[in-house]
Amino acid sequence: MTRRTEWPDGAGFGSAAGDTENRSRRNRGAGPEADGTARDSGGSLPSRAGSGPPRTPEEQARAICLRLLTGSPRTRRQLADALRERGIPDEAAEEVLARFEDVGLIDDAAFAEAWVESRHHGRGLARRALARELRTKGVDSALIDEAVGRLDAEQEESTARELVDRKLRTTRGLDRDKRLRRLAGMLARKGYPEGLALRVVRRALEEEGEDPDLLDHHLPDA
């Protein structure tokens, strides 16, 4: 396992983009906030009368990407989608995105690794659920496989057991069938395979004092 990365659902390595933006503003002598220019709802920065020529599409794309990356890490596809929604021409968007990748402000591999660490430790998500989330964010399949592969089966099972242990006390007093459905269903929603979920639930209930012979009527011997 890699070293655990503290990244609670959205915060993380975006600070690098903020540092770059601040340095760029100092080099220019002033930024959009310094001259009082307000951002419009689409993320572009309209010029005021007498403040200079209109910003180029590349400049607008750069400002949009820096602002988004300062707020939270983003994948290349997320940024590309944001630029497209704001009307940035594809050629200008591609030029800016390629440059951001070159300097390390866009790094889908680092994004995927940090996402897996954060969402597994913070939400208890299994590899299958993590891979599904990364796909929706446009991360390449090879990078997804590499990131979720760092989460080994032993760690995944240990986390599943922790989730079941926390849920057990809230199911006490329910009939056996309902407890089993709730515990196994909770793990299934977090992406744990059926065999693993049933094995973990069975072991937890046996340790709590459930009769193994009675469990045989409800759970397979996983």
How many domains would you count in the coordinates?
3
What is the element string, with H for helices and E for strands? HHHHHHHHHHH
The level of helicity is: 55-70%
Strand content: under 5%
Could you tell me the mean pLDDT? 79
Give the low-pLDDT segments. Answer: 1-50
Secondary-structure class: mainly alpha
List the total number of helices: 11
Number of strands: 0
Shape, per Cα inertia axes: elongated
The rounded Rg comes to 24 Å
Biggest sheet features: none
Distance between the termini: 26 Å
Function: Modulates RecA activity.
Subcellular location: Cytoplasm
Organism: Streptomyces lunalinharesii
Domain RecX first three-helical: 61-99
Task: Explain briefly what this protein structure is.
It comes from Streptomyces lunalinharesii. With 222 residues, the protein is an all-alpha fold.
How is this structure best described in words?
Helix content is 63%, strand content 0%. It is built from eleven helices and no strands. Helix 3 packs antiparallel against helix 4. The two termini are 26 Å apart. The N terminus is likely disordered.
Key terms:
single chain, Regulatory protein RecX, 222 residues, 0% strand, Regulatory_RecX, mainly alpha, elongated, 3 domains, RecX_HTH_2nd, RecX_HTH_1st
List the helices and strands and how they pair.
Elements: H1 15-28, H2 57-71, H3 76-85, H4 90-102, H5 108-123, H6 127-136, H7 141-149, H8 153-171, H9 176-189, H10 194-208, H11 212-215
Helix pairs in contact: 1-2, 2-4, 3-4, 5-7, 6-7, 8-9, 8-10, 9-10
